[in-house]
């Protein structure tokens, strides 16, 4: 089969190579799937660089999130059948940027019928992250104001849709006119181009000076620091990631004086700590997908030959929505 392989660490376009490799064999509790679609995620970039908390042995095939058709069941697998379309996480080092991949049954779920292969491939990580962040950690309420950074990106775009579905007023922060259009198409009530506007002032204006009840921050750095200036009394800042390259650094005396909460989210822990909640989340998200309220914005559908280039553009911050390889 064809698969992208990382033989040394560095930038995706420099260290990824397309090769012919054997089809992996499923172990106990695993599924072998024919890859229908695999979404590019920032963890894929970080793994290529050797900077992610998960460090698969070299060589490995990146592509942590996918949609696949079950081809073969490993030992002790129940509840799945050959031919079924599933979404979820790959089992590294046999990731999704290949013709076939492995999945664990614990992190494989029925693909929502309302989504095509590319959309389904991009539905698991971003939307599960958004749902757990907004509903489980921040307890977002109807009528509250939600500020979403990187609102035209992978996880940010999902947060915009989920915030609107929850009845929040959503303010999206993006970089550039093209991304402004994307965030508006996702349903954001107000969109701020950070290149030409100050989101702190916009938030204060929109909320009558009260500030945002919930801040969704997958960026870190300056985005986090400035968010502390426009978070509401008893507001919640969600630390979701640090795609901007600088990890959030919290001044706890400021949180004390302004009476807001800094809430971390490590979504991956829920699969181990509370798998039933992950299943409940998937069911809720599938319901939203059926209703048309949750649908990944696929900006690019790549052939397998173009995967490394697409992942590098994601690394460079030059993409909008989701970039997905489709077979």
UniProtKB/TrEMBL annotation:
A GO MF term: zinc ion binding
Record's protein name: NADPH:quinone oxidoreductase family protein
Gene3D superfamilies xref list: Medium-chain alcohol dehydrogenases, catalytic domain (3.90.180.10), NAD(P)-binding Rossmann-like Domain (3.40.50.720)
Chain ranges of the Enoyl reductase (ER) domain: 11-325
PANTHER family, sorted: QUINONE OXIDOREDUCTASE-LIKE PROTEIN 2, SHORT-CHAIN DEHYDROGENASE/REDUCTASE
Chain coiled-coil ranges: none
